[in-house]
Structures are given as structure tokens and as C-alpha cells.
Amino acid sequence: QVRLVESGGGLVQPGGSLGLSCSASGIIFRLYTMYWYRQAPGKQRELVASISSTFGTNYADSAKGRFTISRDNAKNTVYLQMNSLKPEDTAVYYCKTAPNYWGQGTQVTVSS
């Protein structure tokens, strides 16, 4: 059974930083591309960043230069480091892997 569990969300002031983690089980983690998505209230879920099995990364334009995705195959964990956070980054952040496995999400709120 595949399970993805996110952690690390919370409330942060604009300009602050926050790190998210997603721990995976039930898959051969090192073989899978991992994704971070987010969904803001009233908006569609959108891809934020991805990291392949060979550590190639891709970012949404909104995340470039501020967010960093990384993975630790020994810990079966993918991370999202978010810096210079803006109020528009407020959303529920989800971890995903193929074919269609999702975590439960973790809330990130950027507000003063």
C-alpha cells in the first residue's frame, strides 16, 4: 500500500521561510519522480515542483528562485524548501507520485 505523508506546514510571515517534508512508503522510492502540488482556496490544484529519479528538477514559474525541491532516497523523503514566501503562496501543499498517489496535504499560510 502506497502512503505519502506531508509535514512541516504552518503560519509564516511574508518574506519568511518554511520547509515541507513528504515521507513515502509502499514504493521503491528511488525509482519514482516526486511532485509537490498546491491548491489555494477557490483555485485549481497546480504543480509547484518535481524531482526525478535522477535528481532532475523542474519548477513552476512562481516557484523559481524561491523554492527548492530535494530528495533523500535513504529516508524515502522528498522536501520542499520555500523562501521569500508571499501571501499568494498560501495553499494546501500536496505530495504526489505516479500513477496517482497523493498525500493528505499540509496547510501553508503566509500572513502578517
In terms of structural class, how would the helical and strand content be classed?
mainly beta
Radius of gyration: 13 Å
One letter per element, helices H and strands E, the order comes to EEEEEEEEEEE
Please work out how many helical segments DSSP would assign.
0
Strand content: over 45%
* Shape estimate: globular
What oligomeric state best describes the polypeptide chains here? single chain
Which parts are unreliable, with pLDDT below 50 for 5 consecutive residues or more? none
Q: Could you tell me the mean pLDDT? A: 97
Tell me about the largest β-sheet.
7 strands, mixed
End-to-end separation in angstroms reads 40 Å
Helix share bin: under 10%
